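Most newcomers find our protein records easier to grasp once they have seen one. A learned vocabulary of local backbone shapes supplies the integers on the structure line. Here is such a record, shown just as it appears in the course material:
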Amino acid sequence: MSMVTSEPKPRRALPQLMQLTEAAAARLKALYEGGEAGRLLRIAVSTKGCSGMSYDMGWVDAPGPQDEVVVSHGLRVLVDRKATLFLIGTTMDYKVDKLTSGFTFENPNEKGRCGCGESFHV
């Protein structure tokens, strides 16, 4: 009786949870070195807005037990573990327009956004 053994299939590399653009990293670094020194940016997804979901950002003093730590451009950002499935592969950018400036998200999981751009659905 002959036994055939096969090597386990190699696992496919998982996409990075989240990354920062150079502009987002520069702005976040300025915040970390300025008024938010010693704190970390925490990103979550909440249920609100006309499309159903919205990005929530806030400052915390330390990672919580439900936070994933993302390192991009040498900077740490926290992601609420409940939001990870919605954010896999997301790129956070910082944009400055004539009348507004702020962090934006390019999320490959989004299926659509509301007209005002404040909420999304997957």
